[in-house]
Amino acid sequence: KGLRGISRANFLRRLERAREAGDLPDGTDVEALASAFNTLLQGLSIQARDGASRGELERVARASLAMLPGR
Prior knowledge:
Blueprint: H1 2-20, H2 30-49, H3 54-64
Helix pairs in contact: 1-2, 2-3
């Protein structure tokens, strides 16, 4: 599976739990969200490696929360 696959699986499990708990609407495409957040994480990793500041990375991470339904 590799590290990226494991990371995506972790996102998926957490999003499924959130949907089951009612924190995400029933129709939420958790598969797509897991892939989107995993892709974002990979991009943040690349930006960090290339010298992005912690503040810049945190700003992107906060903005990514807008992808969650109901935000």
